Amino acid sequence: MSSFSPQDHVFMQQALRLAEAATRRAAPNPGVGCVLVRDGRVIGTGATLQVGGDHAEIQAIKDCLARGDSARGATAYVTLEPCSHHGRTPPCAERLVQEGLARVVAAMVDPYHEVSGRGLAMLRAAGIDASAGLLEAEARHVHRGFLSRVERQRPWVTLKAAATLDGKTALLNGKSQWITGPAARHDVQKLRARSCAILTGSGTVLVDNPQLTVRDFILPQQPLRVVLDSRLVTPPDRRIFHGGNTLLVTSIADLTRHQPYLQRGAELMVLPEEAGHANLPMLMQRLAERGVNELMIEAGAGLNGALVRAGLVDEAILYLAPSLVGSTAQGLFAWPALEDLADKQQVKIQDVRMVGADIRINMTFAMP
Q1: Is 92 annotated as a binding residue?
Q2: Hey, where are the domains in the chain?
Q3: 302 labeled binding residue
Q4: Residue 208 marked ligand-binding
Q5: Is 57 a catalytic residue?
Q6: Which of 20, 57, 81, 94 is catalytic?
Q7: How do the pLDDT tens digits run along the chain, 368 residues long?
Q8: Theoretical Cys-Cys bridge with 115: which of 110, 123, 144, 321, CB 3.0 to 4.6 Å?
Q9: Are 270 and 184 contacting, i.e. CB atoms less than 8 angstroms apart?
Q10: Which one of 3.50.50.60, 3.40.140.10, 1.20.58.630, 3.40.50.1370 gives the CATH number of domain 6-146?
């Protein structure tokens, strides 16, 4: 196990911040960050560009050259092992060798089968001091979407919900705008901006008629909007179908039923029905195959509950508003009635903070 200095930690933390900022832009690739250092001084930084563009290491080298310097003899701090294969771009490990780097520190080994230790091996074979494992837990968190897609063949799934203090998400008539305040809604825009896709159900589309777009930030591409509508009950004139970039998931294979949605620019995916809705694990696998690293859920109690019970939610972010709306209003999760408290669904609170006047709770679910 390599020994890392306090200075190593500082520079890797800087690389992780660069990676976090590049996550959405780089998808489906991992948003990697790289910092080049010589004699304790940063001489170049970079982060992964959009697919087909430079990887982080190449951007850092270009930044170094633009400063009138050279990477020879420097240390590269990179949040993921440099790639070693020819894909859309040449191998980063090969370029690091050519530039004469003395040392490369990776936060973690890349689990992608075409890399998986080969990048570090290439560097070592060229006489470069190459190691991995510095701030690996933090790197796994930053790269969680990419890692989930590669290691589990499904996206990292974040469920977002907003409720009153009595646990209600909408009135009995379905009205829910707005339960939370402006600060919480802006925070949700940040979550959407990070996501490759946003999943909702037909019930939410029928009642709320949402757009499910990112409006507070400029993105190279809006997240894919995914509507789960097993029986095709959603009217094709809903706002979610405006402008295309919408995937409608159904169990109805009748092509004539598909036509009104296709004419609106939507894409349709037919999946077998299971427990009253399209097969959810299969949907996750199909989304991963499309390159979806991170999926956000903005749905009603029925779909929320089904996803949690299926063990498909990695984290949930709940916004609690300081208000009460009564016992007849709609709840957060559709859940079977229990006879014994031993059967309750356990959650683990990861973080609690104020967002404007609302409380934001980050939590994870114990797997069934």
Answers
A1: yes
A2: 6-146, 154-365
A3: yes
A4: yes
A5: yes
A6: 57
A7: 468 999 999 999 999 999 999 998 999 999 999 999 999 999 999 999 998 889 999 999 999 999 999 999 999 999 999 998 766 777 899 999 999 999 999 999 999 877 888 899 999 999 999 999 999 999 999 999 999 999 999 999 999 999 888 878 766 666 666 789 999 999 999 999 999 999 999 999 998 899 999 998 888 889 999 999 999 999 999 999 998 899 999 999 999 999 999 999 999 999 998 877 899 999 999 999 999 999 999 999 899 999 999 999 999 999 999 988 776 656 777 776 777 777 777 889 999 999 999 999 999 986 65
A8: 110
A9: no
A10: 3.40.140.10
